[in-house]
Structures are given as C-alpha cells and as structure tokens.
C-alpha cells in the first residue's frame, strides 16, 4: 500500500479532530521512511510514511531523555536499547504516530513506555483526567506494563494507575479522583469507569495500543474505537503488536496520521535463540502421559490447553502425580491469578497450566520451555504462546504435541508462521522425549497446594459490641415480676365472672383463636398484662 491510500482518507478525518493546529505541528517535526519487512501471511500491507523516519539510535543517551529516566535505566541495568526501541523511540519522542510490529518479548513495553513518560514528564493531571493512556487486552498484560513502567514513572514524578476488570472498581475510581498522569487500562473496565463519570479522556494527548491484534481477536475493536474517539483531537497514537492483520488495518486508517512503520522481529522464526519442536503422539491417552512426564522435569514450564475445564482437570492430574502445578484461566478471580503468577515466578509452583489468557502479559525470567498440549488455533496464537520463552535474548524451546488428525492443520500453521520445526514421533517413555524436554517420571506422591489465606480478623470486634446490650435486658426482668405476682388475681377471677367477661379477650387476641379453641384461655392471660384492667371491670 502506498501513502496515497491512507493519505486520501486521513485529511477528511483528522482536520475535524485537529481543529487546524495538529497538521502544522506534525508537518514541522522530523520525519522519514519507516523501515519495514514484507508483510507476514495474513498481514495487511503497512503504509509507508511520506516524510522519512529518523534513524535508529545506538544508546539511550542519544535520545535526549530526561536525566531522571537515564538514571533509572542505569539503575535497572538497562544499558542498550533493543532493536524496536532504537528504531521507534526517536520518532515517538518527535511526536510522530508509530506503527510497530515486534514479537512478544522484543522490548515493546519500553519502546512506548519511555516515550510516554518523557513526553508527559513535568505535567500534572486533573482529577479523573489522565494525560496518557495505554490500552491492553488482558489483566496480566496490564500488570506487566505497570510493573515495567513504575520505576521510571516514579523517577520523573508521574503517577501511574491501572484499571482492569476483576478488581474493585471503587478503589480504581478513587485512584483516578486523586489524579494520575498515566493510565494503563483494559477497554471494558475503562468504558465502565467513563460511564460512571469517574474518568474522562479529553486531556489524553498520547495513546498507546499494545497487542492491538489480540484486542481485535477478543472483540474489543468497537470499544477501542469508541475510546479513541474520546481522546484529545490531534493527539499522538502509538500502535504496537506482534502481528498486523486486516483488523488492525481499520484502526491504522482511522486513527493514525502518516505513521512511521517499523517491523522488527516480525515472527518467532527470526529468533535464533528459540527452538521449535513438533512431537507426534499416537492418541489422547499417550498425549496426557507425555505431557505429565514433561511437567515433571526440572525447572519451570508453561503448558497450554484450550479450555478452562481441561486446564482444571489436567492440573488435578499433575498434583496427584506429584507435580507442583497451578491453573491459570479466565474463570479464576484476579487475586487468584495474581497469587498463582507470584507462586510461579518464585518457584513455589513449577508448572503453570493455562489457557490463552496467559499467552499475553506474562514475563518470567529464565523460562526455557513452553508446551502446547493442545495445538494453537492459528499462527498468531502460536507466536504469542511461544513468546513466553526466549525473551530479551534468552534461549528457549516451544514444543507442540500433535495427534494424527491434527498433523495437516499444524503443518499449515507452521507455514503461516514462517517456521520450520524439528519433528519426531515419541511416546511417554521415549528417550528422545527426555532429550528434547528433560521429561522424567513424576514422583507419584500427591501434592496439595496451600489454599488462599483467610482474613477473619475484623469479625470478633463486631461481635463484641452487641454483648454490652444484653446486660441491660436483665434489668427489665425485675419489672416483669410484679406482673407475675398479679397473675394470682386474674387466674381465679374467670371462674366467678360470667362468660361475657372473657369476650373482650377474644377481640384483643384474634390472631390466636386456635389457642382459645384448645382451652388456651389460661395460657393467653400470662402473655397479656391484663391484671391491671380486670380489677377495673370488677369494680
């Protein structure tokens, strides 16, 4: 696609939002041709920027970042920029819209994060009105972005707030009321907060879409489109993704103005430190046995399955076999998911059994094996699952277990991903399986994971207060004793009185007429304090 195609639509769209000022600002900034690779299978032809892109830098000091950010980078032992950072940061810092394609783990978070923080530094947000917005598809990715950027945001005295589903919306609204310059959010929860009046996007000057293809796959495009229409007209947009399919094309044409395009590490095939293995197994029973032995290896591993139910079932199987495993899927609460991830990162849990919810936003250092127990549905899922290993220059392996009926689909998937895997036929006891994955026989001693910690500390305090009230009740008992003493007078009086004298009692106690029919006239009198009234009638 040439720049004419995107340029024909943009002048109609952007002037209505820029109110005349943004085009002049953008035209005056340094610019250039974006470096790009040929589009991968299923990707759209990325637009070429009319002005030339700024050249990549060799170190962070050449970017003109605030001194506090450079100091924070040194403190985090981040010395040299990754390729996608070196290519996109000069243009992002110059105010250009950026379309960046890079595999998971290639350094995209700092590529947009440093630009956001540098451009926002020195500004202060009004309550409920952030200045920069980072949209992500999942809670886990939101947490990862927050963890990665917090040290740098603190260094330049910026408040960073995260809003995601599954956590208290009241606390998130309170954080926005206190003011936050940078907001990391999932589309659904942000839309809820805006509807409640707890957030407005009119002051957002720089917007980031991270893992945009995943947001499209999850059906977030309508929400994302609605949110982008609410940000400040003429603002800067940075879109980063591991793949660029035709759903992303619509976002690019509608919201990005003459973007600088950079395609760095477009697929896992370009990662020389990642090995790809396709292991053919005979049947589902053998596949479960193979996966169990792989899970029993030394070191941590992530196992991917399709459904929440299959994840829970296989986790129970592993625990019964002596493997310290934990499930991770969308059916678990956010505190449970956070706790599971913490246990996995600390090594308390060695096997993470997950659905695709874990394919984005999980960064674990020194994770050298990912296993697709159930093969992914397409090449994009494969890339994102595999992106959990071999991150930031580390080595790792991706193993996929394939049944006979899945062989043809898997071959097509690998072709779309541009990968030529190593293949082998294995059984659970095959030495080749042990060589590739480190598989071994599990201990067979069942493992019980600790439940969530209870928090019942405030309840005893609430029960202690009512105990003082019953002490006042015994004081009223002596007052009831004289009434009991008067019972001796009315108990004998009904025998002397005519039956008509008992009729007023029936009128007062119509709700207990069944008691009267059963001879309950005597039992009713003690309940009603009528001793004082009857002497009047007798008089």
Automatic annotation (TrEMBL):
Family matches, as InterPro entries: DEAD/DEAH_box_helicase_dom (IPR011545), DEAD/DEAH_RhlB (IPR044742), DEAD_box_RNA_helicase (IPR050079), Helicase_ATP-bd (IPR014001), Helicase_C-like (IPR001650), P-loop_NTPase (IPR027417), RNA_helicase_DEAD_Q_motif (IPR014014)
Keyword check for Hydrolase: yes
MF-aspect GO terms: ATP binding; hydrolase activity; nucleic acid binding; RNA helicase activity
UniProt entry keywords in alphabetical sequence: ATP-binding, Helicase, Hydrolase, Nucleotide-binding
Ranges where the DEAD-box RNA helicase Q domain occurs: 58-86
Biased composition range(s): Low complexity: 467-483
Domain Helicase C-terminal: 286-432
Region (Disordered): 1-57, 439-539
Span(s) of short sequence motif Q motif: 58-86
Residue stretches making up the Helicase ATP-binding domain: 89-262
SMART domains per the UniProt record, alphabetical: DEXDc, HELICc
Pfam families: DEAD (PF00270), Helicase_C (PF00271)
GO cellular component assignments: cytosol
Protein family membership: Belongs to the DEAD box helicase family.
Record-given protein name: DEAD/DEAH box helicase
């Amino acid at each position: 696609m040439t720049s004419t195609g995107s340029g024909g639509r943009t002048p109609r769209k952007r002037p209505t939002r820029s109110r005349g000022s943004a085009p002049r600002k953008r035209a005056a900034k340094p610019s250039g041709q974006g470096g790009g690779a040929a589009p991968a299978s299923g990707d759209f032809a990325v637009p070429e920027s009319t002005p030339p892109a700024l050249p990549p830098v060799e170190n962070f000091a050449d970017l003109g970042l605030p001194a506090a950010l450079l100091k924070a980078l040194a403190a985090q032992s981040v010395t040299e920029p990754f390729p996608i950072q070196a290519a996109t940061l000069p243009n992002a810092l110059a105010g250009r819209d950026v379309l960046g394609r890079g595999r998971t783990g290639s350094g995209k978070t700092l590529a947009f994060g440093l630009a956001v923080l540098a451009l926002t530094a020195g500004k202060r947000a009004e309550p409920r009105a952030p200045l920069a917005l980072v949209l992500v598809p999942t809670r886990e990715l939101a947490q990862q972005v927050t963890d990665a950027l917090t040290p740098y945001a603190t260094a330049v005295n910026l408040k960073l707030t995260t809003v995601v589903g599954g956590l208290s919306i009241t606390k998130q609204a309170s954080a926005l009321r206190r003011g936050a310059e940078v907001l990391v959010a999932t589309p659904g929860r942000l839309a809820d907060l805006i509807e409640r009046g707890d957030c407005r996007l009119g002051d957002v000057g720089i917007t980031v879409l991270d893992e945009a293809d995943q947001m499209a796959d999850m059906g977030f495009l309508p929400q994302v489109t609605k949110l982008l229409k609410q940000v400040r007209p003429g603002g800067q947009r940075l879109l980063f993704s591991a793949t660029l399919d035709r759903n992303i094309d619509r976002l690019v044409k509608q919201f990005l103005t003459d973007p600088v395009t950079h395609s760095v590490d477009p697929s896992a095939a370009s990662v020389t430190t990642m090995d790809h293995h396709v292991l053919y197994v005979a049947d589902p029973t053998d596949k479960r046995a193979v996966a169990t032995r792989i899970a029993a290896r030394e070191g941590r591993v992530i196992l991917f399955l399709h459904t929440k139910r299959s994840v829970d079932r296989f986790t129970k199987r592993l625990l019964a076999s002596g493997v310290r495993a934990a499930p991770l899927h969308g059916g678990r609460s956010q505190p449970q998911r956070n706790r599971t991830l913490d246990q996995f990162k600390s090594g308390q849990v060695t096997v993470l059994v997950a659905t695709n919810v874990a394919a984005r936003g999980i960064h674990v250092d020194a994770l050298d094996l990912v296993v697709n127990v159930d093969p992914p549905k397409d090449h994009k899922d494969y890339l994102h699952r595999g992106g959990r290993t071999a991150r930031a220059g580390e080595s790792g392996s991706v193993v996929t277990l394939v049944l006979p009926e899945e062989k043809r689909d898997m071959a097509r998937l690998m072709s779309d991903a541009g990968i030529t895997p190593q293949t082998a036929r294995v059984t659970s006891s095959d030495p080749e399986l042990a060589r590739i994955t480190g598989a071994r026989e599990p201990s067979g001693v069942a493992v019980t994971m600790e439940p969530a910690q209870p928090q019942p500390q405030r309840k005893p305090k609430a029960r202690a207060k009512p105990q003082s009230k019953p002490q006042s009740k015994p004081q009223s008992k002596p007052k009831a004793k004289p009434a009991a003493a008067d019972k001796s007078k009315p108990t004998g009086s009904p025998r002397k009185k005519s039956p008509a004298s008992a009729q007023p009692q029936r009128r007062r106690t119509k709700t207990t007429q069944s008691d009267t029919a059963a001879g309950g006239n005597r039992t009713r009198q003690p309940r009603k304090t009528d001793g004082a009234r009857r002497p009047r009638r007798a008089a």
